[in-house]
């Protein structure tokens, strides 16, 4: 195990040059990893916690000097009294008054039809093609399958990666109340190919669903999957009473830290402008983030849940350009209230450009009604924004629930 230097703690807003490496059995295949002096900073993952599954896994905290120049400053979350905070001026905390104003003065324009027949016409669900998902992909090819809201199965370079899996009926602490899905899940968890990586962007109920995670982690089929989560989420996941094996598969990272899998896949946790809360007394006690997943021939970006800020250009500069991305386009109205935490389609296209995405799919819409815009407005607005920016409509698409698309972009096909 090698332990490098952490330039500044997460209590600071910026990190300069440093990394920590804990490796097991093999070195990653991503070029040179420089050895640094030992430092007493606490690793997000202790060597003893490495999973017993037969995979080669390296955890690299902070960043690898091959990716990030030493003299560059990268934003880190602010931290005080055990809570995290966004480091950008574009963030604004919500006051109770804002929430009351939103709830009492903004008209709900979602207008979701009551009739399931009408919904089937407007927002059809495509049963996931299980055989298609099992088909191996050639080098340089990817397959993205939208499973509703922010759940995406990304496949490339021999890996199956699942983002923010939510398969429950409601995204809520309770299954008898709270936002209920307007479209059914397009498959069962057992219909998915054996997973390698599960990414969780933050702890909000529409992104972290304990019932889905329990089922996934207890499944024999997905027993080799690792979970990559932001700082502060592991204790919550441990409280889900998962067994010892599955708890050892959870990797908790700060922004810019990464995990290497089998020496062939590097998963970076990257920043997002958002917040966290699971109960009334744990606001911002866990971090939030996005992910850059770098394979041997394909790069994928998962934006998680985010408002727009300057960090996407930084992500694009150091980890991009990306072959494909999943970027939120919904839950944005009213803007005066939602803009710090949720992008609208115009800002989603900015992220697409900032990170250098060659092909993106729009997520975080059409599944749970969380805000006030018309439920079909996000894809319509997305097309308008692409047209007005003279971008090809095919470069940033929305899929039907359960639909798969293949790339690279020049050959994108929908199934
Ligand atoms: Zn959220």
From TrEMBL:
Source species taxonomy: Eukaryota, Rhodophyta, Bangiophyceae, Galdieriales, Galdieriaceae
Record domain Metallo-beta-lactamase: where: 160-365
Signal peptide as annotated in the record: none
Biological process annotations from GO: N-acylethanolamine metabolic process; N-acylphosphatidylethanolamine metabolic process
Source organism of the structure: Galdieria partita
GO cellular component: cytoplasm
GO MF annotation: an example: N-acylphosphatidylethanolamine-specific phospholipase D activity
Name assigned to this protein: Metallo-beta-lactamase domain-containing protein
A Pfam family: Lactamase_B_2
